[in-house]
């Protein structure tokens, strides 16, 4: 018997599947008022070849929300490259996603998968700074607890001592220069009120929503990996913009070295820490930023610089350190951004409080 021309429907049961041909008449045509929309062209991102790395499986990201991928402009809702027409190609980097934006005008100069979910690592500490810097008195002296030192073995730490008394400013310097995870716990606890660290993390997520960073969800204040913790290159730019608008943050981010005071009461010696962000030392006009690394996130980076009165920020996620380290990839993208004409844009960084899902529902 000849097969009937039509649509094939696959049904799956207990261990078997069958294909059944349906008559063409059974497939309803599209209404004439609904023209078929061609799929948008995805431009491949310029990629450098990275060496293969053995790693644990990454956490599964939440399902994408179409509206969240269009924050800042519809052109940003792509897993591929988005740059202004006619501009030079951006440099090849190993980062899985990145974005370059103007800190002052909010214009997005270009990006690769700007709204793709990724794991943040320690660049999440910028969300902690954006949330808690306005709340905490830098001159306040606080006591570090044993619970503050409950961090993953081998992860980055300043060397704070339980029972030690430190100024809040010292905690911030330990957080931003040395990426101290115990400093992150202490700052989140101090800013979290009666709920301690949990309250601090909740405040971080509230801050992310206020900024329009709807693809960011914090589970730990430090950025240490945890199920359900994600961000995007676009969201990081929103967060970084708030940080660099704060003069105290800018001072901390450009500090090259700081002294952690001795703790005589607990027999602890004083010592010096240095800024781990090489952009500070090696890039003309650097404003600072934040480095990050975990097995899940790989290398993550946020950096900003000023040139000829123009301040740009770069964010990148999922990078490998060869052939270039994270800060070097960031520097290359900053060079590319500074070479573009002013007012060049493919989207915008939304203003805090200006974007909410119900206002932009279609």
Automatic annotation (TrEMBL):
Residues of the active site: 122 (acyl-ester intermediate), 125, 179
GO-annotated molecular function: serine-type D-Ala-D-Ala carboxypeptidase activity
SUPFAM superfamilies, per database record: beta-lactamase/transpeptidase-like (SSF56601)
InterPro entries tied to this protein: Beta-lactam/transpept-like, Peptidase_S11, Peptidase_S11_N
Gene Ontology biological process terms, A to Z: cell wall organization; peptidoglycan biosynthetic process; proteolysis; regulation of cell shape
Binding site for substrate: 290
Keywords: Carboxypeptidase, Cell shape, Cell wall biogenesis/degradation, Hydrolase, Peptidoglycan synthesis, Protease, Signal
Pfam families registered for this protein in UniProt: Peptidase_S11
Domain spans labelled Peptidase S11 D-alanyl-D-alanine carboxypeptidase A N-terminal: 89-320
Superkingdom of the source species: Bacteria
Family, similarity comment: Belongs to the peptidase S11 family.
Protein name: D-alanyl-D-alanine carboxypeptidase
Organism in which the protein naturally occurs: Verrucosispora sioxanthis
